[in-house]
Amino acid sequence: MAYTQIIKNCFTDATDPTDWVYNAYSKSLARCEGIASSLQVLKEQGRLPVLDLPVDNEDLHQLSQLRLFKNRDFENVVVVGIGGSSLGAQVLESLKQNGNGPTLHFWDTLDYHVMGPHLQGESLTKTAFLLISKSGSTPEILAQTLLVIEALNNMGGAEAVSQQAMVICEPGDNPLGRIADKWALERLDHDPNIGGRYSVLSIVGALPALIAGIDMKAVRSGAQEVLDDALLNPESLPRIGAALHHALHDICGVNQNVLMPYAKQLEPLTHWFRQLWAESIGKEGLGTTPLNALGPIDQHSQLQLWLDGPSDKFFTLIINNEDDSSPLMDVGLADDDPALDYLRDHRISDVVHAEAAATASTLASRGKFLRCIEIDVLDEKTIGALLMHFMLETIFTCHLFGVNPFDQPAVEDGKRLTKMYLRGEI
Fold this sequence. Notes:
This protein is α/β, with parallel strands linked by helices and 426 residues long. It folds into two domains: 4-40 and 218-405, 3-Layer(aba) Sandwich (Rossmann fold); 51-214, 3-Layer(aba) Sandwich (Rossmann fold), CATH 3.40.50.10490. Helix content is 46%, strand content 13%. Strands 1-10-9-7-8 form a five-stranded mixed beta sheet, sandwiched between helices. It starts with a strand and ends with a helix. Strand 2, helix 4 (87-93) and strand 3 form a beta-alpha-beta unit.
């Protein structure tokens, strides 16, 4: 497995019959067996395509033949998407190690200060736009699409629009699809049976990742390894995490779920996870609140609350044990100041490792509920494993809570009201 999971300070003694948390955890873990069996049946019947993505690599070759991918003259590719249409791709793109290929930009905002610079000037001729909306009717994406088409059309006419923009949306008739047809844009189908927040391994995440030079086969391989284990192993890591979430909520009133990696490259993962968890579990008055953080930055902002505040949080620290290539620190540059001696001959990664260990130890010593996920290398296989872990952990936890992990009825109400406000109907 590409990662390990260590549970700290959640149980008193597994052999103690009065350890109510462990008893509740054991019951929840046993329930996961039935959930896994149901998921396996749905997978075999083709009714849960998100679980088929890790082994389906035929689409990767097809994506590599697209004009947007093959045209290496583009210096910039703007991914126009919001929520699940953007966050997963940002997780994958964060692995980019070199400056080869175009630079990816993500319009996951309606702030024109972000969008404007890409729509004007000479750089527009070397910028491509990937327009993504699962439903094809997301108000933000339609508004941004109109700006993109206007800018390209003003610059080079209909040919520029068709050559420099591409659409991903559900098949059939929808506003974004009609725009694609009118302007002769390449149009790719978003599987209607894969929700946006679960689409990171699909073309929604794969195409931007391929453009960035990410090995999607390795990403999917890491995901497949976790999936295979979770469906068959009664003590797989996603099942354990789900059972622990459920038990801590039921017995200890834990209602906040903190994800804090000690790696800047994993910061996009926390934003992706926040949407995944919130939209999946927050229904019918149930669920827990996801909080994203980043180490060591949030040691200097949120740690005081975590340590001295209420014990209503479950903490997950992701610790990257990989050493970086930074130079050894030379304390001689500061006249061998004794106050800096602890830094002598250490790399930056040594400092990060020490701070992660210290935070974990301090949280545990204060009686906080803690899990440490450790990785030895941050690469495509590892990121695929983490993505699948959190998707499965979310799905299992939702079923334990008794809610549907795949719908989002309240969000759809907000989209409907937005359109009504803009029409002046409210």
